[in-house]
Specification:
Blueprint: E1 2-6, H1 18-27, E2 32-36, H2 42-46, E3 49-54, H3 59-64, E4 70-72, H4 84-88, E5 92-94, H5 97-116, H6 119-127, H7 133-138, E6 150-154, H8 158-169, E7 173-177, E8 191-192, E9 195-198, H9 203-209, E10 212-215, H10 229-234, E11 240-243, H11 252-260, E12 266-269, E13 289-291, H12 302-318
Parallel strand pairs: 1-2, 1-3, 3-4, 4-5, 6-7, 6-10, 7-9, 10-11, 11-12, 12-13
Antiparallel strand pairs: 8-9
Helix pairs in contact: 5-8
């Protein structure tokens, strides 16, 4: 069986390193493993590929892949793969949410701490060699604690579960808003201590209660534009919005207007609808916005983590056992 790897991206960390396929050949000698640096020659390899690893396949490329049984995305999000033809097929799709979840969750906590403890302002004053203790205290909202604060966590997949675990360890009350709050996730129960699971109809109430809001939901037709003007208006004036999911979950014009009017404590954004973020974006100059350049998943262990997941799933696939990280192709996550 042929395993075809095409992980093309302008950012070097997102590209599969050469050792990745070499190690797979050593561990799985019965597989024919082809790793391409780009999609240039992908068509001639698709016709007999049984497994594909990559970010996306166009419908005309999928049509060539008549032997394909399994697609694995090295991303947590799979919207770039989801087409009606793929959804209607018998091809199993898996994602790497378990690879990225713990790393992105750490970043989300770092962003919350940075906002709560005024780290961006402290760096600003450091650049000016100003001892700004009084200045930091006079900023609004006031510096605060995570312990005892309420977090509205939107989404409870691989990233959301890890955010909830870390936030609970900080002593936060966590309101999880998810599509199916009655379903167990990992070892979680619908309501456990500081963790309360809610459904989509409870989103507005959760936003109204929250001191911090973290977006960790997949991008689907239901979640696009989820945080709009009406929902921003529900949030507390001192609350912070953190997005480590996908940019289109937020109505940018509405968020910029709310931040400019001082209706939110601030925002910390790792993802945007169009990336790289344009130099003319108002986000760059808003003093209550912290920007990281889609860097939440960066870690020196990334491809080791990818390898651990993929090799385990290959063993499962070849022995006919259920795979880890299976995507609901109709739900889109």
């Amino acid at each position: 069986m042929k395993l075809l790897i095409v992980v093309q991206h302008p950012f070097e960390l997102w590209q599969a390193p050469p050792w990745f396929s070499e190690r797979l050949r050593g561990d799985f000698p019965d597989l024919e493993i082809v790793q391409l640096a780009s999609y240039q020659d992908v068509d001639r390899h698709l016709s007999d590929a049984g497994i594909f690893i990559g970010w996306s396949l166009r419908p005309e490329q999928l049509a060539l892949a008549t032997q394909l049984r399994w697609i694995h995305s090295p991303a947590a999000a799979v919207h770039a793969l989801m087409t009606p033809a793929l959804a209607a097929s018998n091809i199993v799709v898996t994602n790497a949410s378990s690879v990225h979840g713990p790393v992105v969750a750490e970043h989300a906590l770092a962003l919350m701490l940075a906002r709560a403890k005024r780290i961006p302002s402290a760096v600003h004053y450091q650049d000016k060699k100003v001892w700004a203790q009084q200045d930091l205290w006079r900023e609004t909202p006031l510096p605060c604690e995570l312990a005892g604060a309420t977090l509205a966590l939107i989404g409870f997949g691989g990233i959301g579960r890890e955010v909830a675990r870390l936030a609970a360890a900080f002593g936060m009350r966590v309101l999880v808003v998810r599509e199916h709050p009655d379903r167990a996730a990992g070892n979680s129960k619908p309501e456990t201590g500081n963790l309360v699971q809610l459904g989509p109809t409870d989103l507005d109430d959760a936003l109204s209660s929250a001191d911090f809001v973290v977006l960790a939901a997949p991008l689907t037709p239901k979640t696009r534009g989820l945080i709009n003007a009406a929902r921003l208006a529900r949030m507390k004036p001192a609350a912070y919005l953190v997005n480590v999911s996908r940019g289109p979950l937020i109505d940018d014009a509405a968020l910029v207007a709310a931040l400019q009017a001082g209706k939110l404590g601030g925002a910390a954004l790792d993802v945007f609808e169009k990336e790289p973020l344009a130099p003319g974006s108002p986000y760059w100059t808003l003093p209550n916005v912290l920007i990281t350049p889609h860097s939440a998943a960066l870690t020196d262990r990334l491809w080791d983590r990818h390898y651990a997941l993929l090799s385990e799933n290959l063993r499962r696939f070849l022995s006919g056992r259920p795979l880890l990280g299976i995507v609901d192709k109709h739900a889109g996550y």
